[in-house]
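Order emerges. One example.
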Amino acid sequence: MDTIAAVCTGTGAVGILRISGDMAKTVASRVFSGQLNTPRMMAYGAFLDASGNIVDRGLAVWFSAPNSYTGEDVVELHCHGSRVAMSSILEACFASGARAAKPGEFTRRAFLNGKMDLTQAEAVMDLIDAETEAAAKNAAAQLDGEIGKGLDSLRDRLLDIAAAFSAYVDYPEDGIDEPEVASGLEGIAEKLEKLAASYAQGKILKDGVKTALIGRPNVGKSSLLNALVGFDRSIVTDRAGTTRDTVEESAMVGGVRLRLVDTAGMRETDDAIEQEGVSRSTNAAERADLLLCVFDVAQALGEEDLRICELAKGKCAIAVVNKSDLAAQFEMSTLEPYFGDRIVEISAKERHGLDALGACISETLAVKTIPCDGSVITNARHMAATKEAALRVRDALNALAGGLTPDVAVGEIEQAIALLGEITGKTATDAVLTRIFERFCVGK
């Protein structure tokens, strides 16, 4: 393979460039004056540009194949994090025989060289993108191969079952009895279904929760958004209908990342612009994973409030009763038929009740029950393939129960085997690999 090079870090105190390939040491020797004689031993020296001029001084380390991130010879150059210095050193690497690395190419080489399976490679990006401690822990566990090991075990069991059936079908003269595999297939199907279902929790860990703040005008939706994010993100005035479009921001609330969407107040209006805002609010509410339905305790519940209540029916929703610092004009029990015990009193203006709201959100989403040990699926690709594999195993069971010939069941089992192989990379196509690694940053 070509020798590749890229900057791995942004500007800062320290910058790191990575070189990987058969010529990694040769390229490094042309841009670094220190001696790289011992693997994994830092060396000090000067960094040179393409003209041989010193542009910085720092450290370099050589990782010999196959004991490196990519499985190839790798050299890391540690210089100061100056954009100018790093650019000059990188250009010198190109002039010395390396080419620019493509997005994710280092990790792709690690996968192709057997240093990690595809689930681990994808966990690298998940770890980089993690916005919460829980997401980072889960990605780190998946980087250790937690998902891949479990899927490989199930795939091996399916291979054994397919082989037993093939022997029964292909060698009838040997008197081989038809394998008794129904219970085994049932167990595999259940595990795959459970794994696919874990995506609902895994999505919360990785992506957070799409949360819409809905309510009629002037109940305090924008004030609540500002209180949750900790700064004035939305405009707040006494005038009804100030928010005409959705306003989006994210915040950590109750131990989970909320993707907050502040919406226009829902009401009947003749204003064409406000009508569009109300339409967008309705769409945001329909797409949301969680609804924070905001009510003004200082005003009696009106028709718009009741429409909000009806909209919340059957959804994951919490009633947020705002302006608790003012005299109440309705009883909290009025909201119970719609929200049960998911009713929280707050004062967004005074920042009161936000901890109680966070606790209610955490309990509603069952955040504390989500494991961070890598056992839940956080990747939509994994979920889709696992779900489809479970269906194929179920179809194999149905074929056997329906008295169809064993080769029909074997065909279904082989499809399930291929699907699980796509997840870990054993049967992934180049098109799938390209799609996965192109979302990586250059240098990783």
Summary: Residues 146-170 form the longest helix (25 residues). The two ends are 17 Å apart (CA to CA). The first strand starts at residue 4 and ends at 7.
